């Protein structure tokens, strides 16, 4: 009888544990939902023979066309395998359309990011794609996450903190603020895609908090964008706009790319110099050595 | 059946359900090969794949161990890998293992394709082995780590599936040969960059570069530094001296007056060259060519004057 009771308890724990696990998993999945990328392939269109007469073999063109949404009139950058391949300017409706030629057949890792009207960067939107030789691949459904910033680096508890950024015109912006519990608020971007939400800090506990945002438009949902931190304290300190990313930019050129990777790779598995130890602490993991963790941080902040 | 066995079954089922659900959420490193049964002296290829399982990952490292008494490693292929930048390019260590470490800027959730829906696992690398003798063994992944694309390098939950195989003298299963892909394409276009930083090479100028190859993979890089003087000289008298090098490369010409060319060669021998003009070109008076032209003009002028003097007394 006792063993039966124990068995029932174990089963219940197992089921409840599992149910809890499934809830966590579904929450994680909902966070990761992004705009639906679609890859379509069409053969290279036939080329009219020049000057008529005779047989003409058209050159094999392997091309990728990227279609998506950034911010109105923003600069959109496409990275091919981590290096800048092409840039374009989005239209006033935030739509962009850019083509890349001269590719081989195989797996490519493309990333797209944009900068808003204040120079704030979106998160990288990355998608490895298999490219077919001699065909035009169209990648549609790219929806860049909104940019985000806060007006104060520290807010006096009870005052408002402005959470602002840019996305698509009239897009619905979903902002989350992480405290002991997560707060989720919604606002709408204006015709230029600009959004601003005054968040009442009285609901937050004293200390460090993080905020991020995602956007929805025409049935599409972007992923969450960059994470911005602020402090809830006893005074208000206005934030000085950062010119360069604070993390991963080792050589201080406002970009995180192959140069930073090479500098970090030089120190991989070596004893760090005093000067580089300081940089590693400020801009990488801060554990006093260069490991895969530091390269992961770099990959997250990558700009190409 | 008594009530206790029923409970036992229920207990076992719920435990399995819990464990399997847990595993389903973890990223997965596994091998893919056409078969698991081989004859002696047969070559076969195994691909190491990463299934992100809805996670966004951006870094991976590991060590692949193989039984040297049963298998001889013939080739490591990283062409078409999802890894954009290798921290440690896949290489053999201690004769019985392959180590690798690399990143995917922006993160990886799976590979999109035009002919299927959803996401597929991505290839990290391929290994080609030759079987040595009869026996059973496994190719195992050790010390593996995958990190989340979260800006903090948080380790992701990882499940590993090793690759079991058997080698037999009398193999009845029809053998699948390694698909031979004819690689006629050069590596991808790339742009080298000259830079310097106080934290590396004592602040001296260095070169960074990286290309990709979608088929056979990058074999190595070669570098040529030449000043405009050397350029002219080499054209007529000397073969250009390319040096095998890796990124980052400390430039020999710290005055940056040289043309710098980087050649990426793939394992099939195809090459792609990227060149940079001198960052600080020679002043006109430093260029021998200019002096050569000036001397030629002076000589021509003198000859002309001599001829005119001879002909008309001018």
Commentary on this structure:
Chain A starts with a helix and ends with a helix. Chain A has four helices and 18 strands. In chain A, strands 10, 12, 13, 15, 16, 17 and 18 form a seven-stranded mixed beta sheet that branches. Chain A has a four-stranded mixed beta sheet with strand order 1-8-2-5, with no helix packed on it. Chain A has a four-stranded antiparallel beta sheet with strand order 4-3-6-7, with no helix packed on it. Chain A is flat. With 304 residues, chain A is an alpha+beta fold. With 314 residues, chain B is of the alpha+beta class. Chain B has helices at 3-24, 228-236, 288-312; strands at residues 27-32, 37-38, 43-51, 57-65, 71-77, 85-93, 97-108, 122-131, 135-148, 158-161, 163-167, 193-195, 206-208, 218-226, 243-245, 249-250, 259-266, 271-276. In chain B, the strands form four sheets. In chain B, strands 2-11-9-4-7-6 form a six-stranded mixed beta sheet, with no helix packed on it. Chain B has a five-stranded mixed beta sheet with strand order 5-8-3-1-10, with no helix packed on it. Chain B is elongated, with a radius of gyration of 30 Å. The chains are: A alpha+beta (304), B alpha+beta (314). Chains A and B meet through helix 1, strand 1, strand 6, strand 7 and helix 2 of A and helix 1, strand 4, strand 6, strand 7 and strand 9 of B.
Features:
heterodimer, A: 304 residues, alpha+beta, seven-stranded mixed sheet, four-stranded mixed sheet, 4 helices, 38% strand, B: 314 residues, five-stranded mixed sheet, 39% strand
In short:
By secondary structure, chain A is of the alpha+beta class. Chain A has four helices and 18 strands. Chain A starts with a helix and ends with a helix.
